[in-house]
Amino acid sequence: VWIGGGTGGSVEGTAITEGAFTGTSVNLAIQTAAAYLIASREQLADATVDMSSFILREIAMGVANLLDAMAFSADGTADQVDAGYYGIFETVAVHTGCKAEAAAGNVTIATTDIDDWVRCLTTVSANVLMRTARWWIHPQSLAKAILVRDANGRPIFQPALEAPSSGVGSILGYPVTKVNAAPTADAANAKVAVFGDPDGYMVGIRQDMELAQSEHIKFAENQIAFRAIVRAGGKHRIPTGNPAGHKPFAVLTLPAA
């Protein structure tokens, strides 16, 4: 607030009006992501490379991929793949106002036009454009999006060499991040890309990844068990089902056929 003669009565020495933050807390459900594998001692002993290190690295990658799926493609299904979480490509299921649908007839990525991509920028809340906003898209979908051009015939995707950014390039001035966990469908109703504020989604790591192996659980079978676990969870920072509330993301979606 302003204090002074031009404020309609307050003078020097007037107390500053107290402000306050509003909002609600995010209740994050933490669960355990895990990978488990059994290998025979003969296999480990006869391999020409260090199989133990290879196996631990691979199961650690498996858990990391599961966390990526949680944050990007999970659709809320209560199973061992999605665990009830919603990723940002499923934001519309959480906040109905975050859908940015391409124009009628633009039912493939290559047939979308610049107006469809601009619609993502006008769908998010205005303050998102002033933050560290970016795009997330599958590499194969990005390859198809390169065919989309602006009114001057230039591709809307500009590689990092042409338009330096914190991603692999930029679309409409905002950096692009390639995501293998993003959907790849290229047909009616498909989710093509997400634009928005990374802070609009929270990933909580309660326990860092633990890698372990045991020579005892499969002692009789002469096998060694390998395990990777991490306790984590993810959630949107938006009100559930509130189309009028803050919109940190816009999901570019192809129209129905």
Strand line-up of the largest beta sheet: 2-10-7-3-6-5-4
> What's the helix-strand series?
EHHHEHEHEEEEEEE
Tell me the fraction of residues in β-strands, as a range: 25-35%
Structural class: alpha+beta
Helix count from the secondary structure assignment: 5
Question: Radius of gyration, rounded?
Answer: 24 Å
Low-confidence segments, given as residue ranges, are none
Q: Calculate the terminal CA-CA distance, rounded to whole Å.
A: 52 Å
How would you explain this protein's 3D organization?
The protein is an alpha+beta fold and about 260 residues long. It is about 20% helix and about 25% strand. The chain has 5 helices and 10 strands. The protein has a 7-stranded mixed sheet with strand order 2-10-7-3-6-5-4. A 3-stranded antiparallel sheet has the order 1-9-8. Strand 5 and strand 6 form a beta hairpin. The longest helix has 22 residues, at about 50-70. The chain is globular and about 85 Å long. It starts with about 30 loop residues before the first strand and ends with a strand.
